[in-house]
């Protein structure tokens, strides 16, 4: 079902994933196990799929084939990247990220906050139902990003 897992550093993947890279794995004869993806034309040669309910990036497709987002798998650790591609767009600080200091915030306030988090994204297992979004997004501003 899957082939070469990779990390793509191109700017299109950075923007599509909202991160520093796109973790992708080649798919051979794959199919969606839940729901139906929505597609958009991200360039003149590619289109990208995302979940229409939560916005999660799901796939990238060109005439050469389909690549699935590793982070969307139920167990992404089983699809560990083997190569990096498009290194000319790799962010200059990327290689130093693992040497950054680690902040282990186990304060009571932070732990209480985490205990109250109820994810509205699909869980890492098959299920008929999961918590759907409601209109009571506690602690968020009008844009829904929770920063203010």
TrEMBL record:
User: Would the keyword Zinc turn up in this protein's UniProt record?
Assistant: yes
Q: Which UniProt keywords apply?
A: Lyase, Metal-binding, Zinc
Show the segment(s) annotated as Disordered.
120-148
Mind telling me which SUPFAM superfamilies this protein's record contains? Mss4-like (SSF51316)
Keyword check for Lyase: yes
InterPro entries, alphabetized: CENP-V/GFA, Mss4-like_sf
* GO MF: carbon-sulfur lyase activity; metal ion binding
A Pfam family in this protein? Answer: GFA
Composition skew (Acidic residues), residue ranges: 135-148
Which residue ranges does the record assign to the CENP-V/GFA domain? 1-91
What the record says about family reads: Belongs to the Gfa family.
Q: Which PANTHER family match?
A: CENP-V_GFA DOMAIN-CONTAINING PROTEIN-RELATED, GFA DOMAIN-CONTAINING PROTEIN
- Name of the protein this chain belongs to: Gfa-like protein
């Amino acid at each position: 079902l899957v082939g070469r897992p990779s990390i793509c550093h191109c700017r299109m993947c950075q923007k599509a994933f909202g991160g520093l890279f796109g973790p992708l794995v080649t798919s051979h004869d794959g199919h969606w196990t839940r729901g139906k993806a929505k597609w958009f034309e991200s360039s003149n040669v590619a289109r990208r799929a995302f979940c229409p309910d939560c916005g999660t990036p799901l796939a990238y497709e060109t005439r050469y084939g389909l690549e699935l987002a590793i982070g969307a798998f139920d167990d992404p650790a089983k699809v560990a990247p083997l190569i990096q591609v498009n290194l000319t767009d790799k962010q200059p600080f990327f290689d130093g990220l693992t040497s950054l200091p680690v902040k282990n915030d186990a304060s009571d306030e932070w732990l209480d906050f985490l205990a109250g988090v109820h994810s509205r994204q699909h869980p890492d297992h098959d299920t008929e139902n999961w918590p759907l979004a409601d209109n009571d997004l506690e602690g968020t501003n009008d844009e829904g990003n929770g920063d203010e």
